[in-house]
User: Fold this.
Amino acid sequence: MRILTLLALALVASPAISQKDVDWILIQSTLTYHMSHPMHQVDGVSHAARGKGICHAGQCDFLIAAPVKSFDSGDTNRDLHMLETTRGAQFPMVVVRAHFPESETTESTIYADLDVQFAGQTAHYSHVAFQRTGQGNQVHIAGTVPATCSDFKIDRPSFLTVPIKNEIPIKVEMTWKSS
Amino acid sequence: MIRGLIRFLVTAALLPLLVATSLLAQNADSSPSAQPPLDHASAQQKGSQSSPLPNAPAPPASSNEPSLSDLGFTTQQTQGDPKLQATLDKRTTMLRIHQKVGLITAIPMLATLITGPMAKAKGKNGQPIKEPTQANLDFHAALGGTTTALYFTTAYFAIRAPRIPGSHKHGGTRVHEALAFIHGPGMILTPILGIMAYKQESAGEKVHGIASAHGPVAVTTAAAYGAAIVAVSWPIHWKFWEKQ
Assistant:
C-alpha cells in the first residue's frame, strides 16, 4: 500500500518537476525609435530598459520597461518636445509585455504577442518576429515593433506645417541571461 | 523726423508683442496644460485601452508574470508628474510661437538687407554724392523697424519659455542658442546705427563714423540669424518625395 501511494505521488509530481520555471534577466538593451519627416530622419536611442522574463508551464511572459525621457535623439529640444507630445511626464514609462510559447525560446525566430503601454494608451501587436541568437545562457534578441503614432493617440508633431510620418518603428536589440 | 521714426519703431515693437501675447493666452486656454492636473484621470477613462492610473502597468494576467516593481524602478521614476507635463505643454506652446514668429521675422529681415543698398548714398570722396530718395530711406527704415519688433517678440517667447529641470542642452539647440549671442547684440546695435545713419543721410551727409558700421553689423546679424535657423533644423534630409 505504501509503495502504491509513493508511486502515485511520484506520477503526480513528475510533470511539475519536468516543467521547471526559467527566469530571464535583461542585461543589455538598445531601443531605437525612428521618426521620419520630409526634412528630418531622426533616431532616438535608449539603453535604460530593464526587463524580466518567466517561462512557466510552456508559456513565457516577459516584461520590459524604459523611462520615456531616457530616449536621446541628439538634441535636447527635440527630446523635450517628444516628451511633451507623448505625455511622457504624465506617463513616464514605456512598458512592454511579451508573451510567446516556451518552445520558441530555442528557435531562431520568436513570434511574440506584445502589449505596449505608452503615452497613457495600450497597443497590442500580434506575432511580432524577433531574431534570436544564443551563446551559453545568454540570448541576443533583435526585432522591430511596428508602432505608429495613432496606436497611442499621439498628435504627430509638425515642422513647417508638415507632420512627421505616422510610423515610428522601434528597433529592439536586447541581451537576456537565463538563471 | 527722428521723433516720428522712434514713435513708429515703438509702435511696431508693441503691436506684434500684443498679438503674440493674446495668441499665447488662447493657446494656453485650449491646451491640456491649462486644465487642472487631476483632469488626466478622467481623460484616461475615456478609452478602453487607457490605464486607470498614470502609467500604471496593466495587472499581470497571472501571478507568474513579472511586474514593474520586479524591475527595480523607483516610484519616483514610474509615477506621473502632471505639473511637469503642464510645464512641458506651456514650453512647447511658447516655442511654437517662437518658431512661427522667428520664421516670419526672416522675411522682413531679408527684405531689409535687400533694400539696404538702395538707402545708401553713393559716390566716392571728392565726387558728387548721389543721395537716396526719401521714399527708399523710409521704406528701408520701416522694414528695419518691423524686423526689430518681430525679432524681439521672437526672443521674448524663447526667453520666457519655462526651463525643464535636469535637462542638459546638447545638439543643434545648443548651437542655436549660442548664435543668439551674436544676433542678439546685433539686433540691438543695427537699429541704433541705422537711426544714426538715417540722421546723417537726412542731413545730406554721407554716412560716417560708427554709423558706417550699420551695414556690416546688419549683414553679420542676419547671417547669424540664418545660421541659427539652420542649426535648430539640422540635420536636414530632403525627402519630400516620400509618401507621408
User: Anything to note?
Assistant: Chain B touches chain A through 58 residues (CB under 8 Å). The radius of gyration of chain B is 26 Å.
